[in-house]
DNA sequence: TTGTAAGCGTTATCAG
DNA sequence: CTGATAACGCTTACAA
């Protein structure tokens, strides 16, 4: 008996390892061993007793206590720039599946497009002892590189590189995908091209796509002509003008081509088209990045570049888990191919 | 000095409370008090020393250790049936915001539409000592009620009731929203109605909407006629037939009306319309539940019922946090109003 | 093969 | 107001 009163035990809680030990008439260590080294060092009869006690008490170890004790949590921190973005969600799903298969749980932190919160997110997740990070943000927002470095945990970057950071990187093969789109449109007779993108800022994917677009034009220099225009929210006039200018440049018999850098831009273009009274596949050919569920429903159907989102997420998770398993070596770069989905917007009538 | 070698301290880790205590020349208890009871019981000079040590070491308390010690984690478990569903995501966003404002972190578990995993999800989250649950699933899938009950933690249900469960419930006012849609369509001249829903199974929202539809028809018995049809994936023929039958029933001068139970059904109907070569707002009037970003782009624009998703999520989180704060009393029921968004599909030409 | 006890990073009780 | 010290639930040397 202790002189001091022990903190009272909250009446009916989950069974703890001590309860099991008591019930089975063994020590806590033995119960712990039952879970972690069962076969190797436990006699059958004791194992049976422990097993029975576990069953009757409905015991399962507390991951928190385990994490505290082991220093690792089997938790993976996933930070997304914007959970509203279907791309992010699709990637998330893939990653989550892979993690669960490997016995990891995903802790999600959504930045809600507030890039300054990146550091905060990392610190919060690190507090919960996540073993590693999957980051689908970065570029803007300071301190993230340091924040990650400070905790010294493995990181995988998805879709957005970050300069100062030596980390595995998983993404769509932007150059390949853009080439697919451009070649398809060229085959359809297009000579004048317009690439519409969200403001590029520091988002690596946007830069890569714009650069790839430029390269495609260069390959057919003299015959293909392209322009890149940044589309901003609420800048409808600029968008309309860019489209009109494009159509104005086109020579007869050669339908001009528009490529959208992502689904957000596609949405804006579709709105502009109704505003202008134009029809996809008629006034112009169109291909957009990101194959949304509604792409088939707009006008004659929108041709798109489908990203292997699920594979991207799964690959990212796998990468990270490999690193957690101790894999060494330089940062890897995994570029997955996109797929051209043909619909009316880019086909000849 | 201990006879036994202590487990070696991993070289450069996060600073712990002990490090801070040492640096400030005080006890761990004092450092702890600095965070939890600063003003009340800490002399200014000691507080200053602690503060300095915290700053130089970059210390912040480990939430895991806190959770272990306190028995509460400031973590909220959020279980969604399907993260792919934009409705769920929108709610998630609202809830997350409210939680963060209140100093809680959300742990997300996605069922991926595998309803049998509900129990697993709850146990996993309970393992991490979440203080309470927000559930956006249930109905199907066994054991969830017991699983929740077993842990005895507060729960808020979103959008889907569950019979055996006494818990706060937050959702769209389905009856009100349906009435809005029906009255609008009736004003537009519709007399023959078709309500298309996903298979109702045990999903309470689907039942409520179907029942509300029936009630609306009953209110104008004799003049309004309605049918409810369940639309299944890959049952295109049945859908087409239902639509044709509806149009067949309509008397001249009275455009028939179609109401879609959610965005998934809306998508199917839109596809059917192009298949049939019909045009929204022409062959029939249309209103669908859920205001998606693409609703304005389909045909003349689709009229919808916009759910206050953000408010739903926020409300759910607030509810839960109130309970965590000790609020007693019977289960509450919070029904938030929907908003009718008018577009071409339900307007007279 | 099993038990003992230290330690993971906190908080809370009790004595000064 | 401050410091020891026992818990929280678990793992893991080390001893037996």
Strand content of chain A: 15-25%
Biggest protein-protein contact in the assembly = A-B, 49 and 48 residues
Report Rg of chain A. 27 Å
Ends distance of chain A: 90 Å
Low-pLDDT windows of residues of chain A: 1-11
Shape of chain A: elongated
Structural class of chain A: alpha/beta
How many helical elements of chain A?
12
InterPro entries (chains A, B): HTH_LacI (IPR000843), LacI/GalR-like_sensor (IPR046335), Lambda_DNA-bd_dom_sf (IPR010982), Peripla_BP_I (IPR028082)
Protein name (chains A, B): LacI family kdg operon repressor
Keywords (chains A, B): DNA-binding, Transcription, Transcription regulation
Domain HTH lacI-type (chains A, B): 15-70
Describe this structure in words.
The structure is a homodimer of 349-residue chains. The first copy, chain A, is of the alpha/beta class. Helix content of chain A is 42%, strand content 17%. In chain A, the strands form two sheets. The first copy, chain A, has a six-stranded parallel sheet, with helices on both faces. In chain A, helix 5 (86-101) links the parallel strand 1 and strand 2 (105-110). Chains A and B meet through helix 4, helix 5, strand 2, helix 6 and helix 11 of A and helix 4, helix 5, strand 2, helix 6 and helix 11 of B. Chain A binds a DNA duplex (16 and 16 nucleotides) through helix 2 and helix 4. Chains A, B: Pfam families: LacI, Peripla_BP_3.
Draw up the topology in text.
2 copies of one chain form a homodimer.
Chain A: H1 17-24, H2 28-36, H3 44-57, H4 63-70, E1 75-80, H5 86-101, E2 105-110, H6 118-127, E3 132-136, H7 144-151, E4 155-158, E5 168-172, H8 174-187, E6 192-197, H9 204-219, E7 225-230, H10 236-249, E8 257-260, H11 263-276, E9 285-289, E10 303-306, H12 309-324, E11 333-336, E12 339-341
Parallel strand pairs in A: 1-2, 1-3, 3-4, 4-5, 5-11, 6-7, 6-8, 8-9, 9-10
Antiparallel strand pairs in A: 10-12
Helix pairs in contact in A: 1-2, 1-3, 5-12, 6-7, 8-9
Chain A binds a DNA duplex (16 and 16 nucleotides) through α2 and α4.
